[in-house]
Structures are given as structure tokens and as C-alpha cells.
Specification:
The complex is a heterodimer of chains A (548) and B (186).
Chain A (H helix, E strand, L loop, with lengths): L7 H13 L2 H5 L4 H29 L10 H35 L8 H23 L24 H29 L12 H33 L12 H18 L2 H15 L6 H15 L14 H13 L1 H15 L8 H24 L1 H7 L3 H31 L5 H27 L15 H32 L37 H12 L1
Helix pairs in contact in A: 3-4, 3-5, 3-17, 4-5, 4-6, 4-15, 5-6, 6-7, 7-8, 7-9, 7-10, 9-12, 9-13, 9-15, 10-12, 12-13, 13-15, 13-16, 15-16, 16-17
Chain B lengths: L5 H28 L8 H4 L2 H26 L3 H31 L8 H31 L9 H26 L5
Helix pairs in contact in B: 1-5, 1-6, 3-4, 3-6, 4-5, 5-6
């Protein structure tokens, strides 16, 4: 295999443009790569903030009857931790990667609507800052990330924190919808010649399906937030039983956003894994069509399962069975994906670098999270485990062990494209093992705590046999995770300065983003290679080989 | 390679998201419809014949915009401008009608805090009104652009997107009017 020839002038132009960049250029940019980078930097910042909140929670829970945080402070911290990680980290980090790589992977110059793209980022950042402004106003929101009514209503949360929460999420919701519109139009309109939907990189496929899911789900959140704000600010009673309103309606509305949101938080990570595993197994993906089609199936099913978050409400058996069954069904297309990834690795020439290690860790951890998810679809088990640490363990296995491990795989995979330098592999391995061990140490014991009946969202617990030691293990694991993030940050800073130069295509990958320089010039491509299959660069390299 | 006009495709996706948003507000109105037992309700507070007149204005504004677009396609820029002005005036009359209706209701103490009819009615019609106002801003910006030289050569698809939005806002009102006002006569 040979490298793809690129004009050397292009590389220098890219470097020169970087040297000239000032902060004003970053603020006013409409370039998808810069906006993507801004997303990644902002989410990294919020990830550290949310991580510190997680450590505060774990310090408080390290031993029984602790008084490190008082109950009110604890409620604010866990609410902010959940809201931050979901709305300011996991969703936007995936949008940031989608922003950076979708145009590159389809051979486009930029997104279809570059100014709308900039708007999306800034309204997201504004939402994030607005959320954190609540601390300055004296009281952060404290009703949990799904803010059940009537607790989140004025009579029960009288401080302004909830209003900041609702307004911030409204802003973030608008920005997310705008990005989804942009991605759909970009993928439909700006694919290079020959790049049909049957040849589209799977990451782009997942981003495409994900965008439709955003269009279907985020407006439901916006409508719920608007109604909550009307309740709080104009003294209405949408969700207040006292005035004839219905708290259950909030749950229906919120979860009809909230469950698709779970898939919005994981589908692009599936996409990353579907790029990383084939490249580092040196094999094409097994069952391309099945991986793409199962994504569509997951998206459609995810719209019809929201009430499995509400089994404890007392919806009636018919509803519970229906939603239990539809939730179990999702395991089928997800299983198809897991088997496709494993079959891709089967017999491949696997390269165990940091990116691939994270991809394998994703398979391992996400499968555990998926299996505990299946247990929740079984109504009687849900009744026993709802609102316990079993739920906390499950969702962290899906969101951290799933999505964030996927993002890490993507970061090590694409960092050289974004910066021109490889992340250091030795520090990468240290980062990986610390994060992998820290993660399982923190969250595996929470399954056991939950099954033993430890409730979530309670600021402390009595000295029940076994609980103290398991909580201490979890807290130590959380600090190991914290150290792993520091190693990552150190690796990023060091590699930016001294990292090995990457070249255009360090992994011998085959999708279009590797056909341009690293980092790509502002206009992305001088000439986009022809596309005749799902692996245009492979075709190009092998045609050159056969000519030679 | 562009497969569809970008502004129109983007607007179509945006309208899809707006449809979901309104669907949830409409569902809330329907859900609480039976819960209103005391106090103001659609049948004792609203004036459907009067609202029908303003509804016809909004429907008419969709027609005038459609005619205007056809004139522009035929190269008649001045005619387009006249029909555009007619569209804006009709839209503004609708908003004025809604404002008068709101003033009347609020002065007789029908408001979001009073009961669930007030909450659902003002939230639903209020957000629709807000969308009409946004449409009026877009149409007014378009009107200003018609005074610049070279208008009508490049903006074709942009105008198409604005007009899609305007027809959508109109269509949402047909649903709201049927559901909130016409049911009074059932």
C-alpha cells in the first residue's frame, strides 16, 4: 500500500493558516473543522467540571453517615452532574465529531449551512454557561436531570435554579435541532460523486439516522420545558395536581424525549466503533448493510419505548407489557451490531493500539450495560430495581463504558487528522488501563449495591453490612478515573507539542477524510478521490500498486 | 453536487421538528380538555365567528404569497412586491386580531394561572402567534430585499423556503382553529 499523493503546498498552507489564527478568528469562524474543535474543547471543559461534581458525590458516599456535603448541596451536585454530562458533554461531543468529520468523510467543502452551524455551537455554549450561572444566583437546580414534577414546580423548588435549568436546556435544544438539520442537508446534498448511500461510511450513516432522531425527540423536550416554564413563571398548573394538572404527563412528555435521547447519545459512538474496528482489524466491516439497517431499526423502536422509564408509576398491566416487549425488541438490532463488530475482528490482523483497545473495551462494557438494560424491560425486575444504584450502574455502563469509550477510540483515531500529530501510544496505554480499571471499579459494585436495595439520589446511607466497603471501592475507582483523565489531558498537551508527525493517513485507513492533509486545509480537499466502493482509499492504493 | 435546493430541504426538516413541537402542545390541549370543569372554557370565553374572520385573513395571506411567487417566476418583480405587501398586511391583521382577543380575555381574568383552559389555550395559541410574528419578520426582510438591484436572480430558493414556512404556520392554525374554536359549536 502506498500513501495517497498530496500536493506539499497544501500542507504548508494549512500550517500557515493555523499560525495566523487569532481568538477573533475562532469566535467568528464558520468553518466546520474549527466549530468541531470548539465543540470538542467546550465539551472537554464541561467533562472536567462534571467529573469534579462526580468526585464530590463519591467523596460524600465514600463511607456511611458522611457529612462532607449537606443534603441540599448533594441534590444540586448530582443534578448538575447528570445535566452536564448528558447535555453538555455526551451529546455535544458527538455533534462536535460529526461536525468535524461528516464533511470530510463525504468529500465536501464544509457543512451545507455554515452560519447556522456557528449559531448552533454558540447557542449551546450559552446554554451551558446559563446553566452554571445558577450557582452565582445562589442555588443550582436540584430536582435531578429529569426534573420530575411537582418537585420541579415553584411550590417545591422555589429558588431560580429550575428556571436556569429549563432555559439552558431550551437553548441547547434549539442548537441541537439546528445541527441535526444541518447534518441531514449536508449528507443528502453534499456527498461527492459516486458516494451513494450504499457506500457511505458507517459513521456518517449513524450521524444521519441520529439527526432524524434528534428532529423527532428534541422538540418534545422543548415543548415540556415550555410548559414547565409557563407553570413556574405564569403560575399555570400543567403538571400540578392541585389545579387539575398531571405530573404523569410530564413523565410521558419528558421520556418521549428522554428515551430517544439515550440513542442520540450512543448511535454516533456506534458509528465511531464501526470505523475503528475494521481499520485496525484490516478487514471490511462484516455485514455493512445490517449495521446500517439495524441503526434505522433502533431509531424507530426507540420512539416507542419511553414508558419503560415509568413502570413504577402504575400505568396498568397492558401498557407495561406493551412497553416491556417493545423495549426487549431493541436488543435484537443492537445484538446484530455487536455480532457484526465481533465478526469483523474475527480472523483479522488486529492492531492493539489505544484506539482499538478502547473499541474493544466499548464492546465489553456496552454489552454488560445492554444486558442490564434488558433486565429493566422485564417489569417485575424493574419494580425491584428502579431508583436504586442498579440503575446508576446500568446507565453508566451504557453512557461511559459505551459512548465515552467510543469517543476515546475516536479521539485516538482522529486526533492525528485534526492536529497533524499522533497521540503518544505509551501514555495512551496508561490512560486506557487506568480508565478501564477505574470505570469497572467505580460502577460494577453499584450493580450489587442496587440489588441490595441502596437507593440512588440519597445523600448518605446507614452502615448496612457490605455497603461501606462497596461504596469505598466505588469511590477509589472514581479517583482512578479522575487520574486517567489527567493522563489524557497530559497526553493531549504533550502530543500537541512533541507528538510524532502523522502524515495524511497514519493508519492506512480507507475513508475520504484520510485523503487530505493533516490537519486539513480550510477548503478540505484539492481534489476528492473517485468513489467506487465503501473504501475509496483502498481502491486508490491498490490500483496504484497494480499499475506499478 | 447538490441534489435538492439547500434552503428548501433545510426548511422541510425544520418544519418536521416544528410539527413535533406543536403536536405536543396540541396533545396537551386535548389531554386537559375534559379536565376543565369550572371557570373559563373554550365555549364560554371564545368568540369563534370573530376569530373566523381573522382566520380567513391568514388563509388569504397564504394565497397572496403563492400568487406573488408565480408572478416572480414570470419575471414580474413589482407585482411580486405588491403581493408580498398584501401578505404582510394580512398576516399583521391576524396578529392584531389575536392581540385584541388576548386583551379581551385577560381583562376578564382569563389567564394561564386561572385554570387549565387558560394555560393550554395561551400556550398553544401564543406559540402559534410567535411563529406568525417570526414569519412576518422574514417576509419583511424579503420585502426590503426587493428594493435592491438584482433581486430575484439568486434568492429564488430562499423565497421558496420562507413561503414553505408561511404555509406551514397557516396549516398549523387550521388545526388549532378547528380544534379550539370550531369544537365550541359541536
Amino acid at each position: 500500500m502506498s500513501d495517497i499523493p498530496m500536493s506539499p503546498g497544501l500542507v504548508q498552507a494549512g500550517v500557515a493558516a493555523q499560525a495566523r489564527s487569532t481568538w477573533l478568528e475562532w469566535v467568528s469562524t464558520v468553518d466546520h473543522k474549527r466549530i468541531g474543535t470548539l465543540y470538542l474543547c467546550a465539551t472537554l471543559f464541561f467533562f472536567c467540571v462534571g467529573g469534579i461534581e462526580a468526585l464530590l458525590i463519591r467523596i460524600q458516599l465514600a463511607w456511611p453517615n458522611n457529612s462532607f456535603l449537606n443534603p441540599d448541596a448533594y441534590d444540586q451536585i448530582f443534578t448538575m452532574h447528570g445535566t452536564t454530562m448528558i447535555f453538555l458533554v455526551v451529546v455535544p461531543v458527538l455533534l462536535g465529531l460529526a461536525n468535524y468529520f461528516t464533511p470530510l468523510m463525504i468529500g465536501a467543502r464544509d457543512m451545507a449551512l455554515p452560519r447556522l452551524n456557528a449559531f448552533s455551537f454558540w447557542v449551546f455554549l450559552l446554554g451551558g454557561l446559563l446553566l452554571y450561572l445558577s450557582f452565582a444566583d445562589g442555588h443550582a437546580p436540584s430536582a435531578g436531570w429529569f426534573s420530575y414534577t411537582p418537585l420541579s414546580e415553584k411550590g417545591y423548588s422555589s429558588r431560580n435554579g429550575m428556571d436556569y435549568w429549563a432555559l439552558a436546556l431550551l437553548g441547547i435544544g434549539v442548537g441541537t435541532i439546528a445541527t441535526a438539520i444541518n447534518l441531514i442537508v449536508t449528507i443528502v446534498n453534499l456527498r461527492t460523486d459516486g458516494l451513494t448511500f450504499r457506500r457511505l461510511p458507517l459513521f456518517v450513516w449513524m450521524v444521519f439516522v441520529n439527526s432524524f432522531l434528534i428532529i423527532a425527540a428534541l422538540p418534545a423536550l422543548n415543548a415540556s420545558l415550555v410548559m414547565l416554564l409557563v407553570d413556574r413563571m405564569l403560575n399555570a398548573h400543567f403538571f400540578l395536581p392541585l389545579g387539575g394538572g398531571s405530573p404523569i404527563l410530564w413523565q410521558h412528555y419528558f421520556w418521549s424525549f428522554g428515551h430517544p435521547e439515550v440513542y442520540i447519545m450512543v448511535l454516533p459512538a456506534f458509528g465511531i466503533i464501526s470505523e475503528v474496528i475494521p481499520v485496525f482489524s484490516r478487514k471490511p466491516i462484516f455485514g455493512y448493510g445490517f449495521v446500517a439497517a439495524s441503526t434505522v431499526a433502533i431509531a424507530l423502536l426507540s420512539i416507542g419505548v419511553w414508558a419503560h422509564h415509568m413502570f413504577a408509576v402504575g400505568l396498568g398491566h397492558a401498557w407495561e407489557y406493551a412497553f416491556g416487549a417493545s423495549s426487549l425488541l431493541i436488543a435484537v438490532p443492537t445484538g446484530v451490531k455487536i455480532f457484526s463488530w465481533i465478526a469483523t475482528m474475527w480472523g483479522g490482523a488486529i492492531r492493539l493500539n489505544t484506539s482499538m483497545l478502547f473499541a474493544i473495551a466499548f464492546l465489553f462494557s456496552f454489552t454488560i450495560g445492554g444486558l442490564s438494560g434488558v433486565t429493566f424491560a422485564t417489569v417485575p425486575i424493574d419494580w425491584q430495581t428502579t431508583d436504586t444504584y442498579y440503575v446508576v450502574a446500568h446507565m453508566h455502563y451504557v453512557l461511559f463504558g459505551g459512548t465515552l469509550f467510543g469517543v476515546m477510540a475516536g479521539l485516538y483515531y482522529w486526533f492525528p487528522k485534526m492536529t497533524g500529530r499522533l497521540l503518544d501510544e505509551r501514555w495512551g496505554k496508561v490512560h486506557f488501563w487506568l480508565m478501564f480499571i477505574g470505570f469497572h471499579m467505580t460502577f460494577f459494585v453499584q450493580h450489587l449495591l442496587g440489588l441490595d436495595g441502596m437507593p440512588r439520589r440519597v445523600y448518605t446511607y446507614p452502615d448496612v453490612p457490605g455497603w461501606a466497603v462497596m461504596n469505598l471501592i466505588s469511590t477509589i475507582g472514581a479517583f482512578v478515573l479522575g487520574i486517567s483523565v489527567l493522563v489524557l489531558l497530559g497526553n493531549v498537551v504533550l502530543s500537541l507539542r512533541h507528538g510524532e508527525t502523522a502524515g495524511d493517513n497514519p493508519w492506512n485507513a480507507w475513508t475520504l477524510e484520510w485523503a487530505t492533509s493533516s490537519p486539513p486545509p480550510e477548503h478540505n480537499f484539492d481534489a476528492v478521490p473517485p468513489v467506487h466502493s465503501t473504501r475509496p482509499l483502498w481502491d486508490l492504493a491498490h490500483r496504484a500498486e497494480s499499475r506499478a | 453536487m447538490t441534489r435538492f435546493p439547500t434552503p428548501k430541504l433545510a426548511m422541510a426538516v425544520f418544519i418536521a421538528s416544528e410539527t413535533v413541537f406543536f403536536a405536543f402542545l396540541i396533545a396537551a390541549y386535548v389531554y386537559f380538555y375534559g379536565a376543565v370543569v369550572h371557570g373559563p372554557s373554550a365555549s364560554n370565553s371564545l368568540d369563534p365567528p370573530r376569530t373566523l374572520i381573522f382566520t380567513l385573513c391568514l388563509l388569504g395571506s397564504s394565497a397572496t404569497l403563492w400568487i406573488g411567487e408565480r408572478r416572480l417566476a414570470a419575471g414580474q418583480r413589482r407585482a411580486f412586491r405588491r403581493w408580498l405587501i398584501a401578505t404582510i398586511v394580512l398576516g399583521a391583521v391576524f396578529i392584531a386580531g389575536q392581540a385584541m382577543e388576548y386583551i379581551g380575555l385577560l381583562s376578564s381574568r382569563v389567564n394561564p394561572a386561572r385554570n387549565l383552559f387558560g394555560a393550554t389555550f395561551f400556550t398553544l395559541t401564543g406559540f402559534h402567534g410567535l411563529h406568525v410574528v417570526c414569519g412576518l419578520i422574514a417576509l419583511s426582510a424579503l420585502l426590503i430585499l426587493t428594493f435592491f438591484r438584482g433581486f430575484g436572480t439568486r434568492e429564488g430558493v430562499g423565497i421558496g423556503a420562507i413561503s414553505m414556512y408561511w404555509h406551514f404556520v397557516d396549516a398549523v392554525w387550521i388545526v388549532i382553529f378547528s380544534l379550539v374554536y370550531l369544537t365550541v359549536w359541536l
